[in-house]
Amino acid sequence: MLKKLLSYFVPVVIHRKKSAVSKDLEISWNNGQLVLDSTNTNYSYGSLQRILRKGLKNIGFDKIKAMQSVLVLGVAGGSVIKTLVDEIKYGGKITGVEIDPEVIQLANKYFSLDQIPNLKIVIGDAFEFVLKTHEKYDLIIIDIFQDTAMPNFLFEKFFMDRIGQLLRPKGNILFNTMTLDSKHDQRNERYLVEFNNKPYKVKAIPRVERHNELIIIEKSA
Predict the structure, then answer these.
(1) What is the residue range of 119's domain?
(2) Residue 2 pLDDT class (50, 70, 90 cuts)
(3) Residue 209 region, left (φ>0) first, then alpha (ψ -120 to 50), else beta?
(4) Which of 64, 117, 118, 188 is the most exposed place for a label (fewest CB within 10 A)?
(5) Is 0.85 topped by the overall pTM?
(6) 144: helix, coil or strand?
């Protein structure tokens, strides 16, 4: 309790862990809340949860609650899954894909991710999962980072086409990106142009928590 109270004045680290994938991971109390951070950015809860919550609100909580199946690419501590389950009261199937098993261990220990009954966690590469799965989804959330870096494959046409194929009609993609410089801005502009054609409608919410841009895609048919 003391550490939680102190965290309103200064972050209090309670656990540090090395990871082959994510390198340095920290669990800390920050403003009275447990958060998961990498070296240079928030991985789960804290600002990241606020960012993805804004995207989910834009899609519509009532619409999401009625969906049958959600795919989360990049689980980390599972803050967006907690938003789905605790705030939206989503009861459908959630599949979370995370490449870093060390992150999932922390998520289970500190955030009780393994206590969510409608969640299935797959430890593996998101690209390979998307390539091999035969499932269809009503909502695909893409939140894949290694610290502040985003893998190039997320912006390649093959991957874009594939996630579009996995999306059910009237479904949505919520893509969290980080824009730190003009090259990132141009990258996102190309992405929006590439996806903005039938059967998709695309919009962006820029400068969420300063450096993030949310891209929201809806499939009409």
Answers:
(1) 44-219
(2) confident
(3) left
(4) 117
(5) yes
(6) coil
